Amino acid sequence: MKNIFKKVSLLLLVSFLVISFLSSATYAIENTETKDLKQDISKTKNIEKIYNIGQYKEIGDYLYNYFNNLYKILETGDISNFKQSSSDSNTYIILKDLEYKSNLYKIFHNGIKDISVDQFIIKEVKENTDDIDVIVYVNVSYVFNKNENSSMGALYKVKLKKGNDDSAVIGMDTTSIDIQIVKDTIKAKMSSINNSINGNLEELKIVDDLYSKRNEKLPEEKQKADNAAKLNTSLNIGNVVVNSSSLSTTSVNVSYTASDSRYYGWWFGDHYENYIFKRASLDCTNFASQCIWSGYGGCSGYDISDIGYDSSYYNNSTAQALRARVANNYRQTSQWYGRNYDSPYGDPITNFCSVANLWNYATSNTGNGPKADGYNNNSVYTDLSTPMKQGDILQFYNPDTQTWYHSVIVVTTTDYTVSQYTNVRVAQHESEYYWRPLDELIQYFGGSTCKMRLLRPKSTTFAS
């Protein structure tokens, strides 16, 4: 009997020690990841509050309150107060997308809180016979994962009904990339989609079905992410400067400083304008190329945090100096250049602003200008074999358009393997984000079927 008691006691002791060890190990991994994320967000932004409605006080006050209530959907997930007045497809997609984001953040990041409309700028008002068209830029800050600060910005075209009516908004559209993805999916399901107010019930049914399937997939996607994360720990390599052993001697040899590229993306990610470069009609890759430009020393010698959000920063000395550099093609080439903010011309060369062209150019370039190693082309994101590092450019494929569709820059300073993608944060334009969870984008581009490739710039040469 004593022997049995001793064996049972010994077994219990061993079990206790094993459980304690595993718990400690798990805690160590989780604590390390939390610590790394805290390091990444230790420098917070002082977001400027901008409320610019010009002479349109009545319209401005109404729409400001409208968007304040609209973005509360991110926290509550409730669209019932808006759904009744939304019969057009574009408005309904915006509502369903906010509902979906709320659900995604609850499952992946403990939800969203502390929502605040920080920038509200009326850019244009056009009065028609029966209604009013308003173009307005809205940027909203929020907190997720209890302590991570972020924001999202988008340009909206709102149609208002004339007269005194509580439901004055009768239609709405936006340039947000998230909404464009959904529209392209709908286009693939229908022969066409009318981008004006239409009230097409078939389209609304497709929208409902699309978001219903997306929401149903989220718990499974989160479980996959959690299982993968248990197998790996993060790699903290610090600032990355990529050098090349075979550089041309006929031009200036230039290293790629990933931390400078990352900082440009983080600082200007939530700026609709930075008063250095001119926005492109589709700005995501145009912005990613600007980040690469900064990594090659485009902003060297200047502190870009001197440049704020308000249009008064156009006259800021740093903005003026960097604008002049762009105009003089500093760290640019005839095959890769952006437009300076004052340029009277349209979009820059496609190698600078096209998702596919940037990849093709940078991975095959043998002359002056950006060079990069490409990873995981035409493969699902889980096949990525290299850790994601600050300053890396990620590109996403849209199966509905059968094109490479979107570019973002990695802004987390810790290197993470793809199995830890829920820890990765990116900056982007169209919409404007400086700290967006990568997992959110992966879900938008298909979840487990998402194709994502990585572009890692490296040292090269420039004429100046």
From TrEMBL:
Domain Putative amidase: from-to ranges: 270-446
Signal peptide: 1-28
Pfam families: Amidase_6
InterPro entries: Amidase_6
Key words of the record: Signal
Protein's name in the database: Putative amidase domain-containing protein
The species this protein was found in: Caloramator quimbayensis
